[in-house]
Batch of 3 targets.
Target 1
Amino acid sequence: MASFEVIGGHPLKGEIVPQGAKNEALQILCAVLLTSEPVTISNIPDIRDVNKLIELLRDMGVKVGKLATDTYRFQADAVNLDYLDSEQFVAQGRALRGSVMILGPMLARFGKCQLPKPGGDKIGRRPMDTHFLGLEKLGGKLTLEGTDFYRIKAENGLHGTYMLLDEASVTGTANIVMAAVLAQGTTTIYNAACEPYLQQLCKMLVRMGAKINGIGSNLLTIEGVESLGGTEHRMLPDMIEIGSFIGLAAMTGSEITIKDCQVPELGIIPDTFRKLGIQLEVRGDDIYVPAQDHYEIATYLDGSILTVSDHTWPGLTPDLLSIVLVVAIQAKGTVLIHQKMFESRLFFVDKLIDMGAQITLCDPHRAIVIGLDKRNALRGISMTSPDIRAGVALLIAALSADGRSVIDNVEQIDRGYQFIDKRLNALGAQIRRL
């Protein structure tokens, strides 16, 4: 188990480029299974979860060629269906949450797929009902072996239909869309997710020959086609990294320029940080965050305390609530953090309290943060990263703290942030990998 030793209290300065979007990559990479023609993808992040998915595709028989540091060419013209019965495939599927998104493409193109219950962060219940119910409505027949192994077949092919999703699941919508593009007839998906990464997937599929209307809305209409061709695709920068760097700059009193942000795709993320009192300036496609000695949380017009909560797009992504919570620790004022989607994501606040933060955990979903207004610095401690996003939030807290912190289990952070220690050290951070 690797660890970070962090010497905090040092302001950072400079420019940093966000990696390609992890959550987009997991969808886009699975979509290469929909065609036998080459698909070239660029701006792929070099992180553990994405690399494991590329390895899975390669082991399934997909030809994988690395053209540049962040660019790969894939060709799924000889997929080995027998590999799905191997113990190695079962182990790979269990280790990676993103493996669930091979279901739609494999069912659409080959008429069957199987998968163990995927792993991923321990952040609460993450049911896959939306995936399976949607694929069943298209004609897939699901069977469950034991408690955690799924088989799905479409013996009579997939057929378009109308469906109203019970939740606007991003990965669920992606799976259903990838299946529907090769189904016979027309599929209408209401309450579809419409996050930028889902829009990116739909735009890529259209370039491959799919017929999708309503991209960017929660009502998608898909007219199935017989086959798809190859294409080239460049992924968006990771909005979670961008938000993390904004929060890092504020928490450590640093002057940072975040390059190539694709600002129009960030939704309300910049304004959410502005509500915390953080100054930021959009310069073309870059975001400049000046060094700030103080930042003050806004209140509602009647003077009541601000609530920051997650929601489906265009609301705030739940992946940034851990960052917002940490940044509020050194703000002036009080904020209620409401994590609606996952009931275990706030359980890392005990470490922040040990560092000196004033936080009341109301229940598994809500925490009240009373800002210190930088009157007292956090103190360095030893702690363990519970998941990707909480791990980076703890890293930000450690970088702002007085003294030495040690963060264990940083493999969790590596799953979502590429070379984060080296990139932040280039800005003046003091992080050593143990």
Target 2
Amino acid sequence: MGGSVDFSKLANLVDGYVRLPGDPGFDAASRPFNKRYADVRPSAVLSVASADDVGKAIVWARGNDVPIVARGGGHSYAGNSVNTGLVLDLRGLDQVRVDRSSELVTVGGGTRMSTLYAGLEPYDLAFPAGNADDVAIGGLVLGGGVAAVSRSFGLTCDSLVETDVVLADGTTVTCNETSNADLFWACRGGGGGNFGVNTSFTFQARPVLASSTCLLLWHRKHAREVLACMQEIMDRAPDEFAARIGIARAADEEAVVSVVGWHLGPAEELREMLRPALAVAEPFRVDIADRTYWEAKDYLHHNTEGGAFAVRTRSTSKPLPDAGVATMIDAVDAWPGSGNADGAGVALFTWGGAINRVPVTETAFPHRDVLFLISMDTSWHVEDGPAVARANLDWLTALHERMGEFAADSAYVNFTDPDLGDWQSAYHGPNYARLAEVKRRYDPDRVFRFPQAI
């Protein structure tokens, strides 16, 4: 892209607003959530007013040799929702329409979780969704979308029944089981940003269920027995209960073991399931309570200090052996530290249940045999300097390698890992070849591209 691109011509084509560096709102419309990529700045941002704007912008960008990328919530772990060309800010596409009779919910491609839940709650209808207010629906569902209720309700993409996609030639197609079925298949777990710009999604919702939640915290000295016990509990748990089991620490603090869970049932049942863990070691905090579905959603809301971070993932179909648990604990103890209060840690997200009852090739999401997603993360602040960042990334790389002795090489595409080697296999498994065929059909010139693009 040359320096002589005249973005005013784009502004004259669209109803939305074109922002250039220095314009009010430019940073908010383009700043990546992960400050690891804060120095990547686009040449312009188009805050679209409609799906038509998206098509016009794609055609204009191709004609002017300007790289283009769509941005919903900007939460790509690898900063893939910003580039040095044109960013399509989809936040204006955030309508939520609910058909009470069919329980179908249609949402704009830039709809964020706070807007989505606000639109669903009056109807007491839901489908699996995210737990951070400003995460947008597009990135979530296109990468599969694992929610806290997915063991019962399936993935976000398992509830998807239709989506509108603006293609590389600027035209819009509607995709479902019978129309553009191959692209619809790819949109259910093949990863965002690969095939076009999704401007609308329709989901099959369902009535919400009364719920209960738990938050349990233990001191570091109980880590081995608690982590082992909780894995056994979750291996036997009904689909209605999902939990995140973790060990983490911040700088100059002792590690803490945590269990955060959501049960689609009463607290009495939840406490009984957790009884072995409560007996093996006494937590220093116990919160097990009945909640409405919406209260449970709020309770599991993801809070973060922000800053820069990196995440690497593996998976396992069974509880980790004692040596695997010990590796997790030792690594957290050895974390090099940073100024970010989010610190670092390892978490086991309980998958399985309804997720695993869908055949591997029925959707593009391939991880249908997983009990735990193993998420290894670290964080720092840009102000910490390059030496701290390097130490954190080296620590994470070493941990990821060591955990390979106990867990599979598969990785969750929504926890995007820019340092992943064989990402084609790790993200997409046996579905990669078919995804590549869909890419060749719908985007033969690879208009939509990034370092790990299909």
Target 3
Amino acid sequence: MKTKLSVLSAAMLAATLTMMPVVSQAAIPQTVEGQSIPSLAPMLERTTPAVVSVAVTGTHVSKQRVPDVFRYFFGPNAPQEQVQERPFRGLGSGVIIDAEKGYIVTNNHVIDGADDIQVGLHDGREVKAKLIGTDSESDIALLQIEAKNLVAIKSSNSDDLRVGDFAVAIGNPFGLGQTVTSGIVSALGRSGLGIEMLENFIQTDAAINSGNSGGALVNLNGELIGINTAIVAPGGGNVGIGFAIPANMVKNLVAQIAEHGEVRRGVLGISGRDLDSQLAQGFGLDTQHGGFVNEVAKDSAAEKAGIKAGDIIISVDGRGIKSFQELRAKVATMGAGAKVELGLIRDGDKKTVKVTLGEASQTSESAAGAVHPMLQGASLENTSKGIEITDVAQGSPAAMSGLQKGDVIVGINRTAIKDLKALKAQLKDQEGAVALKIMRDKSMLYLVLR
């Protein structure tokens, strides 16, 4: 069973011990026959202050549609759905990446739905954290705290990783307090696991367990190589198969969240599949690594760069890729407008093309919910007229608010808005009810979000 590193329950939270590091190895002598023995202690003394615990509280809201038969008995004023609220607590990990700004990166699933986020620092201080932004598709969240004397971790170039490199995991498993485990990089470019929408994981056998979510995976220099995210856990505990989001992906995502409050996903404009042995044989190739291009969208970044259906993309910025999923993950996390060099094979010949990535114009339902809870279930797209509702899920909060497919949001209260960025900025500090100005079938109306 593949699972995200679960956020600890209230019972586990109550059992939390000290934040002093616990190194998972027996004590060893400093010398043997006069020879000094290498130790990770000096590196850990520099690195562990950058890893924090993240405690969250919130309320899970579950909604269930009321059967039609009940509405028949109770009349037209009967509620359309039943809402249940259940308080929750959880505990995970995080990594300080900018000491001056107080930026901390963690997993989205650690803080998802949280009303209050508290960060526990290595020196025992507890600080309230502000959520800057998240990306649910890659499971990354950026927090910010106000505190002095913070220690930030240095990031590595995770593209330089090799299978067999040593790896050290630092986190807060089972609420025990900061714990360190070691192992190696077991595999790179892991995808197709069904854990996230965008997968390009580092696999490691360093022991990772529940509560390690959002913790650091570092090299022997104490540099960040990944954010621990998920494990394979058939029995519920560590079996030596853990997954981390590469540091380079994290850097790209965090830079976008810090600047825009959200991820502006890069788009190539192609559909495809993994290159397998049958395709490789059919095209006379001696490699089975890469992404096969089935189709190129009209007027897309890929078409403008000259990419064609039947091309096999084998590298991104000079780094080989193993699968179409890895290509998709790397491109999507680079951000709109990024310039990328793709290596490909066409008719048996190797070529290199330069692409300026487009921007994903449509906002997912989950992202719409992040803009405002009552927009959950609506798909939003920037247009020349305003923000168009391209779809509304039946029974969703957006549908209950009265939004319909084809509506165009053109204002909030008395303020005109043109795009999603303006919509998010206007709603950020609004309290209570807000009125959306909607254009529907050439008519104007207002819908109130509460």
